[in-house]
Design a protein that fits this description.
Radius of gyration: 18 Å
GO molecular function, one term: DNA helicase activity
Oligomer: single chain
Protein name: Holliday junction branch migration complex subunit RuvA
Subcellular location: Cytoplasm
Shape: elongated
Region (Domain III): 168-221
Family: Belongs to the RuvA family.
CATH topology of the domain at 84-138: DNA polymerase, domain 1
Strand content: 15-25%
CATH superfamily of the domain at 84-138: 5' to 3' exonuclease, C-terminal subdomain
């Protein structure tokens, strides 16, 4: 399994890039968002990768972060979601946007991706909702340990497409999730509340997120 590539950008196309790694060229398919963040041709780059193996096909897919790669693998576990559909979702929402949409059960956000119909979007939310807390926690751990993106370059890279939702502090979200789980809330329930609280206050610290999430989880009436 090829899990990461580091080399130089040889050429870029609409849906893929060729990375030269010590004289060997690897053709890597990426989401629109990842492609937009790549450095110019001739510059250094590193991407996390996932290898799709079929009887008549070997294809590499590249990701800026481990969280994006993990979501790709999970999205492809859903019936009706292949590699192309997964990249469309990630390209539209980004890894953080996917985490938020699934935690909140936001079918319309998933459906906004090119080629994703309402039934498929609903299936994605239903099948992956219980896995959103784990990915949110993974994102916090990766960001704290090694920074956010693995994309590199010798010159300033083109800016990535703007995320459709504000990005909250990943560590604060993870800590808030842990606290709510310790209080007895179900992981999917806690993740939805934390995601909503983080969307309302992107710069909130852990304590603020916990208080806001508890208000959202409080019985109504």
């Amino acid at each position: 399994m090829i899990g990461k590539l580091a080399g130089r950008v040889d050429y870029r196309a609409e849906d893929h890039v060729l990375i030269d790694v010590r004289g060997v060229g690897y053709l890597v398919y990426c989401s629109d968002r990842t492609l937009a963040a790549l450095p110019p041709v001739g510059q250094a780059v590193a991407l996390y990768t996932d290898l799709l193996v079929r009887e008549d096909l070997l294809q590499l897919y590249g990701f800026a972060t481990l969280v994006e790669k993990e979501w790709h693998r999970l999205l492809m576990s859903v019936q009706g979601i292949g590699a192309k559909a997964s990249l469309a979702i990630l390209g539209t929402l980004g890894a953080d946007g996917v985490s938020r949409a699934i935690a909140l059960g936001d079918v319309n956000a998933i459906k906004a991706a090119r080629g994703i119909g309402p039934k498929t979007a609903q299936r994605v939310v239903i099948e992956l909702k219980d896995k959103a807390p784990g990915i949110m926690a993974l994102g916090a751990g990766v960001a704290a340990a090694m920074g956010d993106e693995v994309i590199e370059g010798d010159a300033p890279r083109r800016p990535a497409a703007p995320a459709p939702q504000p990005k909250a502090n990943a560590a604060a979200q993870s800590e808030a999730l842990s606290a709510l789980s310790n209080l007895g809330y179900a992981p999917s329930e806690a993740a939805g509340a934390v995601a909503q609280a983080a969307g309302d206050a992107p710069d909130a610290d852990t304590a603020t997120l916990i208080r806001a999430a508890l208000k959202l989880l409080a019985p109504k009436g």
